[in-house]
Design brief:
- This protein is α/β, with parallel strands linked by helices and about 160 residues long.
- The chain is built from six helices and five strands; from the N terminus they run βαβαβαβαβαα.
- It has a five-stranded parallel beta sheet, sandwiched between helices.
- It is globular, with a radius of gyration of 15 Å.
Length: about 160
């Protein structure tokens, strides 16, 4: 079954990669949908984020599609002809907002299911927001992101 894994991915982290890798065991193909999400004022442009996700997913390229989107998620999922929205959860605090979004999406199209996947235990605390903040303050985020993302963060914050 085809699933869509949406997110801002600003930047993509090893936690995101964990969900992608494990999601591929359940869903093929898997579309990683990179949201424009201008309201969040991303550090990297949409094109930069798409390139970073593509590079991170290189090994699984045959089964992963990376697509930018700037529309209602359900409309995008319908366009992709996917039946599932895959969402990663790190902690209980993620669940409330994710549950609300899943409920709204279900009301908009009840043929599309949302599947929640817990991040691997070592990734529970990793968030793009924390990674950006640590990098901005000169901290080493190499253990939280793929090497090419680490280099991009260093360059952006130099």
């Amino acid at each position: 079954m085809h699933a869509v894994y949406p997110g801002t991915f600003d930047p993509i982290t090893l936690g995101h990669m964990d969900i992608i890798t494990r999601g591929l065991r359940l869903f093929q193909p898997l579309t990683v949908a990179v949201a424009g999400n201008h309201g969040k004022k991303p550090l990297f442009s949409l094109a930069e984020r798409v390139r970073m996700v593509e590079e991170a997913c290189q090994a699984a390229q045959a089964d992963v599609r990376v697509v930018p989107f700037e529309q209602l998620l359900i409309a995008f999922v319908q366009e992709q002809r996917a039946g599932v929205v895959l969402r990663g959860l790190r902690a209980v605090s993620d669940f409330e907002e994710e549950f609300q979004m899943a409920s709204m999406n279900y009301r908009l199209d009840n043929s599309i299911e949302t599947v929640f996947m817990m991040a691997e235990e070592g990734q529970h605390f990793v968030s793009s927001r924390f990674v950006r903040e640590i990098a901005r303050m000169g901290g080493d985020v190499g253990q939280f992101v793929p090497p090419h993302v680490h280099a991009a963060l260093k360059e952006r914050n130099a």
